[in-house]
Amino acid sequence: MTTDFTVINDWIDRDIRVLDLGCGDGSLLAHLIKTRNICGYGLEIDPGSIQVCIGKGLNVIEQDLNSGLHNFADNSFDSVIMTQALQVMRYPHLVLDEMLRIGQQCIVTFPNFGHWRTRTDLGFRGRMPVTQQLAYEWYDTPNIHFFTYTDFEALCYQRNIRILQRHCISQGILDRCLQKIWPNLFTETAVYHLSR
Amino acid sequence: MSAYDEHSVGLVDTDVLHIDKPIKLACGIVLAEHHLYFETYGRLNSERSNAILICHALSGSHHAAGWHAGDRKPGWWDHYIGPGKAMDTERFFIVSPNNIGSCFGSTGPMTINPETEKPWGPDFPPLRARDWMESQKMLMSHFAIDCWAAVVGGSLGGMQAMRWSLEYPEKLLNSIVIASAMKLSAQNIAFNEIARRAIKSDPDYLSGRYLEEHSVPRRGLALARMIGHVTYLSDVAMAEKFGRELHSGNFLVGKTDPIEFQIESYLNYQGDKFADDFDANTYILITKMLDYFDLSREYCHDPVEAFKHASCNFLVISFTSDWRFPAQRSREITDALIGAGKNVSYAEIQSDQGHDAFLLPNQRYEKILGGYLSRVADRLGVVDE
Hints:
The complex is a heterodimer.
Chain A: H1 4-11, E1 17-21, H2 27-36, E2 39-44, H3 47-55, E3 60-62, E4 77-83, H4 92-102, E5 103-111, H5 116-125, H6 149-158, E6 162-169, H7 173-178, H8 183-186, E7 189-195
Parallel strand pairs in A: 1-2, 1-4, 2-3, 4-5
Antiparallel strand pairs in A: 5-7, 6-7
Chain B: E1 15-19, E2 23-24, E3 30-31, E4 34-41, E5 51-55, E6 81-82, E7 87-88, E8 93-98, E9 112-113, E10 118-119, H1 129-142, E11 150-154, H2 156-167, E12 174-178, H3 186-201, H4 218-232, H5 235-241, E13 246-248, E14 260-261, H6 262-277, H7 280-292, H8 303-307, E15 313-319, H9 327-339, E16 344-349, H10 363-380
Parallel strand pairs in B: 5-8, 5-11, 6-7, 11-12, 12-15, 15-16
Antiparallel strand pairs in B: 1-4, 2-3, 4-8, 9-10, 13-14
Helix pairs in contact in B: 1-2, 3-4, 3-7, 4-6
């Protein structure tokens, strides 16, 4: 099955410099080092995740993304990646600007709040959705911005961000058949390849 | 010996290496011969690949771990060196020298200058971190070690670990830089100069020739240490440890006994103890060495350019309440390493212990350092003994 890893893997050239924002336990970095021989660095704030990365021998830097990325020079990386973390940022649009300043290209993945299941939860049940992608109750979620596939496309248009490629990921067969027609309704995870 | 716990290296001996090979110091002066006091912990493997070099800081010595007979305290980095500790002596062979210019036995201001047959005193040549490195390299040859598994140090020790990575990139696999900086700030130099002036103002200093006159500038040295000590602690740590607690006297009406706060008593004690153990000329010499250090001076003052000469992996660690070598200084090291495309991990350890945190127990610090080195040992194929 297609995962965000396999999609990202296809969009990454060999031997390039990659910065992974919010790298978690470093799985993606480890994967890309293995398959693409990248020179990768991960930024992370969670002590537990940093410990895991160090144990794997990955380059992990303790840094809070919300306090900015000023320490990184313009175009100092070939690719800047952020998986499933944009919705956690205080100012997602400014983070995107920073990513595009630091990297020649960017890859962003996020949970699509426009998926029919979340819409059903909110529209019919009148409850904030708790799904596999958004697996938190409303009162203790780190996700402070909910947005959809269409919202993200609009933001890119508004801020002159070029969408090089996009990919929709869903688990269900029905979703996968219909996402080409109604991506906003049938995409669980959206993966974007961006540049200025 | 059962008196020591299972994670202690136990009773340790100090060795001395006499080095006949002349060493040309950065200032141009040649030391025809010198000797180094050192200790080792753990065992060197047959491939000679599991050696870690410990670089001490301003007031450190070769006695980094374990106990000397009759001592009340173990070595200065005992929390982190021992069987099963972050620097695991069951996997690594730890080499800890007392560097030249220091006062714990190695050639320095307190030893005899063969030319004058008097103590070197204030005439000991000015030193730079690279001189320590050159002398450590001679100790490395003594053990026939070709490449350090890691060079590790805090503060001035971190500066040596960085210098090694630039000067002898093929001689180390990892450089571990803790609570350090690529150069001192004006404020750092200012504190050092106040300390030096305190020493020189002591009438017993005798222009540095106190040893010949059998005198010791204890007051000046104690004052220098008190100033230094305040900068190694944090406001929070001092408030927590001492607050405004009184050591003697009280504020009751009718009581005119002198009032002394705990912090005053503590600082005076620390100062006096230091004056017993340390040497004034050494303090001046090594604080100057700190002031002179500038990692990228020879690289057009461009740290990225400097680190391009390195080929080892780096671990950089800082502590949140350290204001002598603030986290920002470590961030600059890390950023330069990333800019140079080097392998680096960076952790900022939550601590309210100030600069001293690098010597004190801290669970996260232990895990980061231990986790990193355990990976180093795995890669080298070093197994537990």
